[in-house]
Design brief:
One of its GO terms (cellular component) is chloroplast. By secondary structure, the protein is α/β, with parallel strands linked by helices. It is built from 16 helices and 14 strands. The chain has a domain of 259 residues: Rossmann fold, CATH 3.40.50.
């Protein structure tokens, strides 16, 4: 019988495919209190692990245009081309009959076929905001309609900002869809960052009980994280992302050229999630980032294409194994419990999500070290890479131990009154999701990072 119980401690050592040849490497580290890979199935659904591993292999399957190394990626991206432009790199998210491709590349919005093949009906609703519309809306409408007179495109332009990720703004999407008499065969297209992607996805999940939807993410945060995996939703005044649905898109189209207009601070914020993948499950990727962070910050297109691809591969693998967050998917929240406390305590909009997550990762790493679970040297490496990425490594001075404690006590990862955390354990690239840690060590970490 499949167990639905939440284990108190899960160790995740199923690693991403470091060779990029579509295989899953064997676990290299299994600490004594971990649940070994074979028994992971009892927490994710009995007997499903073999199937899952096969799916992971499929999830990292390379398209003919995909490369084996960063250098090769760069040459492919520059050199491979077709009559309609540069061929995209494709990462598959393998979810059975809800599987979908992530297209990654430069100039993909100039390739109408990529979008049009995923539009099934005659109407499309593009959801975007006041910042992105003047930059990319015409391009997207052109891509949807070029040589395709049958498709009618409606647009809805929402106000920009996390404070508008709410029910009132969501209603504007439904108003437009209903006024335009859109039917069940409509496709919703999210053009923007994580806020637009989460809102449009939720609207697509709910409108007429579910219509097709496509993600066109335009921030690093959305390209490496939020557009992949089907988490959609809005905020409630009492908490972030409390109302939503798991709803997968038909495809994700990442045109890396859109990053050229992204402000530096937003770019750095997204890099926090890239660093996260390295720390929780992909040591080789972390080492690549250590060598290439300056190139990323300088917005080198080939380096970015590689970082996005590898991030999407990591996310696709995790989502294929644990779509609805029974355990493994929670590891994508490294640093987020501390980070959410900063976002909530300091006020939304003051710190960007990735900035708060960066500090949260430093705090999680500090706690892991106090517990004796990681090597001292890893602490320095984490500080150093975050600094290179121009991300903060300490919380705002106004954050107190009490603020952290009270906000973390209502975190979604609290079970039976005990806070479960994602902590690093073992060599670089290994983590645990656990409530079995010394609570005094957590207090020490909080005291070390707060003035009062
Ligand atoms: N669904 C998930 O799995 C998931 C994961 C991570 C984050 N999120 C959510 O994502 C949101 C944060 O996403 P975000 O960091 O993309 O923020 P965002 O959507 O607010 O975008 C950041 C800013 O950049 C602007 N912008 C976007 N693309 C641009 C471009 N190409 N050029 C110039 N400006 C551009 C936006 O208008 C906005 O002002 C949060 O609401 C968070 O909860 C969801
Ligand atoms: Zn995040």
């Amino acid at each position: 019988m499949a167990s639905t119980a939440q284990p108190s401690s899960l160790c995740f050592s199923l690693k991403s495919s470091s060779s990029f040849k579509g295989s899953v490497s064997k676990s290299t580290f299994l600490p004594s209190n971990s649940i070994k890979l074979g028994s992971l199935s009892s927490h994710l659904g009995s007997g499903r692990i073999g199937l899952h591993v096969d799916r992971v292999k499929a999830a990292v399957r390379m398209s003919s245009t995909q490369a084996e190394s960063p250098a090769a990626v760069s040459s492919n991206i520059k050199m491979e081309s077709s009559s309609s432009g540069v061929l995209p790199t494709i990462v598959e998210v393998d979810l059975g009959n809800r599987s979908y491709p992530i297209y990654i590349g430069s100039g993909l919005l100039d390739q109408p076929d990529l979008l049009q093949r995923h539009v099934h009906g005659k109407s499309v609703l593009v959801v975007t905001n006041t910042t992105i519309a003047p930059l990319y809306l015409d391009k997207v409408v052109d891509a949807l309609t070029r040589d395709n007179p049958k498709v009618k495109v409606e647009t809805v332009i929402l106000p920009d900002g996390e404070q508008y990720k709410n029910m009132e703004t969501l209603m504007k999407v439904f108003d437009k869809a209903i006024e335009s008499r859109l039917d069940r065969r409509t496709t919703f297209v999210a053009l923007g960052g994580g806020v637009i992607g989460d809102m449009c996805g939720f609207a697509a999940a709910a409108f007429l009980r579910g219509v097709n939807f496509i993600q066109i993410p335009t921030t690093v945060m959305a390209q490496v994280d939020s557009s992949v995996g089907g988490k959609t939703g809005i905020n409630h005044p009492l908490g972030k992302n409390l109302i939503g649905a798991f709803y997968q898109p038909q495809c994700v189209l990442i045109d890396t050229d859109t990053l050229s207009t992204l402000p530096d601070r937003e770019l750095a914020s997204g890099l926090a999630e890239v660093i996260k993948y390295g720390l929780i499950r992909d040591a080789e990727f972390f080492e690549w980032q250590e060598k290439n962070m300056n190139t990323l910050i300088a917005r080198d297109p080939a380096a970015f294409a590689y970082a996005i691809k590898r991030s999407c591969e990591n996310k696709a693998e995790v989502v294929s194994l644990d779509e609805k967050e029974s355990g493994l998917r929670a590891t994508l929240n490294l640093g987020h419990t501390f980070g959410h406390a900063i976002e909530t305590g300091f006020g939304y909009g003051q710190w960007l999500h990735g900035e708060a997550v960066a500090v949260g990762m430093v705090m999680a790493v500090d706690l892991s070290r106090r517990l004796g679970w990681i090597d001292e040297s890893l602490v320095g490496r984490v500080h150093s890479i975050l600094k290179q990425a121009k991300l903060p490594t300490a919380p705002p001075e106004s954050m107190t131990v009490e603020m952290f404690k009270s906000i973390m006590a209502v975190d979604k990862k609290v079970a039976d009154g005990v806070l479960r955390l994602i902590l690093l354990k073992g060599p670089l690239g290994n983590c645990v999701f656990t409530d079995e840690y010394d609570k005094e060590a957590l207090d020490e970490t909080l005291r070390a990072f707060c003035k009062s």
